[in-house]
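Lab notebook, bench 4. Still working through the backlog of constructs that have no structural model yet. Next entry is a single chain of 294 residues. Request: give me the structure tokens for it.
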Amino acid sequence: MKISRRLSGVFFPLLLSAFSFVPPAQARQPQPAAIGPGSIKIVADTTVHLLVTSPAGLKTGFDPSSDQDVIQIPLSDYYTGAGSGNNSSGGASTPAVKRLDIPSPASGEYILEAIGAQSGPFKLQVTAYDSQGKGSGASFVGTATLGATFLYAIAYSPVRGAQVSALAPFSRFHATVNVYSGQPPSFMATADIHLGAGSTGFNPLTDRVYFRLASYSVTIPPGSFTEDKQGDYHFHGEIQSVPLVVRIAPELGGKFALRFKVQVIDLTAAINPLRMVLILGRNAGAKLVNAAVR
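Model written out:
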């Protein structure tokens, strides 16, 4: 049994820009915008695709793992719409933008990915409204390249609105994946990362760990790891009924080696390369990894 490989004319086995093919999302007529109380609105230039993962692990936006749009978050919508305002010639709409609406979002942290659809600058605006209609949010700018991923955290509460922050990218991100087809099915993933220049550090005892591989995702809350005599950190338990063993080994210079052993998750039918997203505190990275079936 082998994981099938996505057919593509070009394959880029690089770090954050390693995408075999990122097709443009199809434009369609937008649904009614969720501008009222209790909502999240995200607008970006079409230089990037948008993908949001909810606290429950549901996704809305463009998913590079499947090369298509997904709408999983209840009542959400993702579309290409007209920009605001008029151009200097008068009357005509400004260039199209990507829009992602989430009416009545649940409390918790949403992960936002801006994924390069083409090379060029982009602007990203996140606006959240609390239950009283008061808006809050932030805007960001960047320079996209094909497949490069920018990650942001949106901490939403219907009482306080949202706090939005950009996550510091890893300066190095190397990973391997082995998929096992036995009973029960399982997989093991390793990651060697270096924190980037903009990092404020990572403490496994006090910071959360978010891990996503293909369709599987998990958040390990702060305080879940224990430290052994060698200075390594361990988690062994179940999250959402999935047995999970994680080891984090810190090294000098902001380097960390991680190992994930996950049972009862069957990735044998997933399409290679598999997309991995890793968030350590306020640090993050995303890349494609070729998995081997054992």
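Notes after review: The radius of gyration is 19 Å. The chain has no helices and 25 strands. Flag for follow-up if needed.
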